[in-house]
Design goal:
Largest sheet: 7 strands, mixed
Order of helices and strands: HHHEEHEEHEEE
Organism: Croceitalea rosinachiae
Protein name: SnoaL-like domain-containing protein
Shape: globular
Helix content: 25-40%
Radius of gyration: 16 Å
Distance between the termini: 29 Å
Amino acid sequence: MKKEYLEKVQTIDDLITAFYACLGGEPGEKRDWEFMKFLFHPQGMKIGYEYDINRNFRPQWIHPNDYIERIGFWFNNTRETAFYERELGRVVETYGNIGHAFSHCQAFHSKEDMANNKPYKQDVKSIQLAYYQDRWWIINMFWHGVTPEFPVPDRYKKFQQFP
């Protein structure tokens, strides 16, 4: 375990901020996939509420290792535009050693688009977290795209934390 990795998982804020930063980059730019794996509990999952191959809108589970294998390959070899995410707001609640965050974010095809506030999509992520072994872990991350049918609630548009 790298010391700099451990420093980025001591608080929920640090962990979520690190998650968003680790995926960003230019086409073909190598990401630190070991760090992304480090953020998730070994049994954690990424779950996207997306269309499947039959155009059914449903949850789709992917283990971070599989995500890295599939999406990481695409980021590193095929994607023709950059990918950056920016978090706009977050509501965090904690109880004991568990935490939950609703995080509102935007995705961009370039740093220029990000500077000009031109996202190509927005999501709300539900992030389950656990504190043990002297650090925070992402247990599961479940996201849903923002649409006219499912707009972002006002409470997710600012940063709030409740112990």
